[in-house]
Design brief:
The chain is α/β, with parallel strands linked by helices. It has 15 helices and 19 strands. The chain is 36% helix and 19% strand. The chain starts with a helix and ends with a helix.
Amino acid sequence: MKGRTALANRFAQCSQGLHVPVLIVLTLATIAWSQQPQPGVRRRTSAAPRLKTIQLPEPSTGGSIAIEQALLDQQRVSVPSDQRLDVTVLGQLAWAAQGVRVPRAASATAASQQPPAMRVYFVLPDGVYLYSPADHSLQQVSADDERRNMAMALVPRLGAPIGGAQIVLAGSARDYAAAIGVQQARTAMLLQAGQAAASIQLQAVGLGLTFVSLDSANLNSVRRIMRLAKNLDPLYVIFVGQPGGQASTPATAAQATPIQPGSRRVLLVVPQQAFQDQELFETKRALELAGVPVQVASTRLTSITGMLGGTANADLLLNQAKLADYHGVVFIGGAGVTEYFNNPTALNLARQAAEQRKVVAAIGTAPSLLATAGILKGVQATGYLPEQTRIVAGGATYTGNPVEKDGLIITATSAPAVPLFVQAIVEGLGEVR
């Protein structure tokens, strides 16, 4: 006890001569020592979010819909809702995308050492997942719901659908080059993406789902949202969901002013030859399903022929069409649309429809006709990529998005964008006085 007292007195005598900086150093050292991990004492730390693995059920290979019926049903797709899809449906879509082509490996570890050249990502309400065909599972790579960000990046307008699931096909040309050589790498990668997209669409129809395909994806935006590696290119995006419109998105003008059958008529202007088959048939069918009466006009009444061999009959000659009978004019694209670039009747029809505040829409190569007519000045527009120069020369801002709606002028890139194209047309018809 005496020893402790003497030591304390000695320290007190010495401390009286210490300067304040030394005392500060001693204090900081004491604090630092107290913060060191002590044996048997656990400190609380913020845990990183734990990523999940979804084991998908074994795929069914006994669908009840014939392939021919599925092919027909593909032409009757509508905009998907954002209702959550169950794990069985996700499993079928994943299997169709890649699982059917990639044999199961002896072990997931062995498969992970040889990553497939094509990656299939699922953007779901509870995060982003990468499909692993080796063990038929979804591996979570992010816990954020990026569906709305993806929708606004790819279809940047109010009421853009988000779908119950968004499937992103991404590939690395480097992977393909290592297997088949540099010259064929890009082509092989795009072909495989096209095959996977077709399989997903057929499977979706077989499950009673609907879809919107986006083949003109904004690569930088998709890569940023998905946090993809720089060597991975997003190639194709498909929004899949239950049919029936948008379950929880803001009401669009079309929803606020429903289109009653017979109340809004539309004129489809089609080249007499080499029109784009899907753009005509799918747009016409989707408008009719929405309750919008449609008439087809061309420069001849006899059978008109599409680029893919499809045939149709015009209801009336273009020069007989009376604009007062319609609330909108839709120009269908295709190689043959160039016949209208110097056709005064077609150009005046587009100009007068715009002046009278009617819907003026064009898809594929047809937005160039609107540019030639001079009604795209100062307008946000899109169209088939090779038409970008003509569209810009007409005074428009070319966006490359699948669909653009600028007031009552609506443009679209190609056939995969038809559901969005028709949705925008119906929305525009609700705004026509």
